[in-house]
Amino acid sequence: MVVLFVVLEVVLFILLEVVFVVFEVAFVLLEVVLFVVLEVVASILLEVVLVLLEVVLFVLLEVVAFVMLEVVFVLLEVASTLLEVVLFVVLEVVASILLEVVLFVIVLGVVFVAVLETVVFILV
Fold first, then answer.
1. In the Cβ-directed half-sphere of 80, how many Cα atoms lie within 13 Å?
2. Nearest to 68 by CA among 78, 60, 56
3. 3-state class of 110 per DSSP?
4. Among residues of the chain, what percentage have pLDDT more than 70?
5. Neighbours of 113 (CB within 10 A)
6. Taking all residues of the chain, what is their mean pLDDT, rounded to a whole number?
7. According to the model, what pLDDT value does residue 43 have?
8. C-alpha to C-alpha distance for 97 and 105, rounded to whole angstroms
9. pLDDT tens digits for 23-75?
10. How far apart are CA 45 and CA 117, in angstroms?
11. Above 90 in pLDDT, residue 3?
12. How buried is 68 (Cβ within 10 angstroms: 0-12 exposed, 13-18 middle, 19+ buried)?
């Protein structure tokens, strides 16, 4: 009876050790599987985030470039309009001054002719 009890105790101890080893192996395998799965998931998520970031940056750069192009176009339109106004005013002033000079020369010519006629009339 004692021998049977000792044999059962040894068998149970060996079975307990086998179960313990099986649990240790299962735990290590679970750790490895979880590590690999998490590594793959993290890699995939990183790729997705990088692609999304690239798309967002591309769209933002497109929008910024479009806005800057529109701003440049508006600034060119404003500059063109200001140049037209300035040229119109300058040409108007120059034309006015030239007209005044021409009128002054005509008046001087008329006065000179009148003085010359008077001198000729007095001399004759």
1. 6
2. 60
3. helix
4. 100
5. 10
6. 93
7. 94
8. 12
9. 999 999 999 999 999 999 999 999 999 999 999 999 999 999 999 999 999 99
10. 105
11. no
12. exposed
Q: How far apart are the C-alpha atoms of 117 and 71, rounded to whole Å?
A: 68
Using the structure block, give the residue that is written with the tokens 């006015």.
96
DSSP 8-state secondary structure symbol assigned to residue 64:
H
Output the six-digit token pair for 6: 């000792």
User: Span 4-13, mean pLDDT?
Assistant: 89
Task: Give the type of residue at 8.
Answer: L
Q: State how far the Cα of 109 lies from the Cα of 104, in Å rounded to an integer.
A: 8
- 44, two tokens: 């995939």
pLDDT at 2 over 90: no
Q: What is 46-59 written as a DSSP string?
A: HHHHHHHHHHHHHH
Cβ-proximal residues to 99 (8 Å cutoff; 6+ apart), any chain: none
Give the max Cα distance, the chain: 179
Angle at 41 between CA 36 and CA 47, to 5 degrees: 125
Amino acid at 17: E
Nearest 10 degrees: Cα torsion 93, 94, 97, 103: -120
